[in-house]
Amino acid sequence: MKVLLISPGWPKGRLWGELAFKFPSLSLASIAAVTPPEWDVELCDDNFERIDYDTDADLIGLTAMTPQAPRAYEIAAGFKSRGKTVVMGGFHASNLPDEALTNVDAVVVGEGDVVWPHLLADFCRGSLQRTYKPDTMMSMADIPFARREIFNGKKYLLTNTIQTTRGCPFDCEFCSVTAFYGRKYRKRPVEQVLAELQGLKKNNAFVFFVDDNIVADRSYSLPLFQGMKGMGLKWLSHAPIDFASDPELLRAAGESGCLGMFVGFESLNQESLAAMGKVTNRAQSFMANAQAFRDNGIGILGSFVLGYDGDTPEIFPKLLRFCEDARLESAIFPLLTPYPGTAVRRRLEAEGRIIPSSWSDYDMEHINFQPKGMTIQQLQEGYDWLNRSFYSFPSMYRRLFKLHRSVQVFGPMNLGFRAAIRRKRSEA
C-alpha cells in the first residue's frame, strides 16, 4: 500500500508564497513516522512540485493551515475525480471538520499521531470512518523521530526541524495554537531530544525548533540547553520577550548555539497587550529586553500584530522607529487575523465585525474584520508601508550595521523578505 502526503502551496502574489526559502512540514514527517512499515510513503510539496494526479498511491493525505485550505480543497477534488480516497488534517480541518468533510473522505481532528495508524487500518479493511479524533494525547516519550528522508531531493532551505514540546501555557486571544494543542505544556524527554539532535547535526549544524514556546518551563529548557552546549549546533526557535528576564537561561541558550528567536512583541500599547492576553509583555521593558538577547548573541525576529482596537494610523511610524532603535534583526507585521477556533474570532463575530472573505485571504496580509481605530484602507496601506520601510536598505543598515553572530542568519533573511515583498508588489 502507498500513501501520498501533500503540502498545499501558498498562492503567488502573497508574501509567504513569494519567499524563496522554503521549510518542510514537520507534521507530515511526524505522520510518516507513525505510518506502519508495510506502507510506502511519498511527499509532494505543491509550493515547488507538480502534483501527479495519476499517482499509483492508494491514499492521499493533506494538511493545511487556513489560507491554504482553498488550495487543499482544489487538490482533493482533483484526486477524488480520479477515484482516489482523500483524508485531511491540520489546523483548519480540525477547527472546521464539517466544512472539510464536504471536500474530503475523512478528517483527522487534532493531533494525528495516535489515530493515523487506526485510520490506515480502517482504510485497508474498507471501513474508513468520516472523523478521527484521539481520545487521549500521545505520550511525548512515545513520539518517534520524524522521518525526514521524505524531504530528500526537495528544494528546502533546511530540513533539520524538530519539536521538543507541544502546547503553550498562555492563551493569547489571536493564537490558534491553544485551540489545537490546548493549554497543557507537554515535553519530550530531554535525552530523546539530544539523541535526535546528534543525528540531525550529521546532516547540517543548523536546526530550527518549531516549538511555540521552547522556554515555557525552565526546569525543562535549562537542562536541554546545557545538554546541547558543545554540540556545535546553530539553532533558532520561538520564545516570549520576558525570556530576557532570566539571565541564566538566556545565557545557557546562547552558549548552546542559539542564534535567533521568533519573539512576539505584538504591540507597543500596554492596553492592547492586556486585551490580547499577552500577560508577560511589558512594553516599557522592550528596549532593554532586546538588548539582553543581543548581549547573549541571540538575534530577534520580532512580531507585531496590526489592527487591534487601540491602534491608530500613528502606530506605523512608531513601530518602525522602535524596531530601528531596538535594532531588531528582523520582523514581521501580521494583520490581526480572526482564525477559526480563536477567541478573537468569537469576539469579533459577536460584535458583528467579521468581513466575509475567502479563506485564502486569511494570510495575515489581508483584512478580514472591521477595525476600530482606523479605516480598512488606512490599515492596509499602513501595513504595506511598514513592510516596505522596514525592509528598505537604509533600515536594514541601521539595524544590522554592527556585526553580530546572528547576522549569518538574519542578513539573508532580510534580503529574502525584501525580495519577496518586491515580487509581491510586481504580482499585484
Give a description of the structure.
α8 runs parallel beside α9, α9 packs parallel to α10 and α13 runs parallel beside α15. The chain has a six-stranded parallel sheet with strand order 2-1-3-4-5-6, with helices on both faces. The termini are far apart. By secondary structure, the chain is of the alpha/beta class. It has 17 helices and 14 strands. It is globular. Helix content is 37%, strand content 14%. The protein has two domains: 131 residues, Rossmann fold; 268 residues, tm_1862 like domain (pyruvate-formate lyase- activating enzyme, Alpha-Beta Horseshoe).
Keywords:
428 residues; alpha/beta; pyruvate-formate lyase- activating enzyme; 6-stranded parallel β-sheet; 17 helices; 14% strand
What's a quick, concise take on this entry?
The chain has 428 residues and is an alpha/beta fold. The chain contains 17 helices and 14 strands.
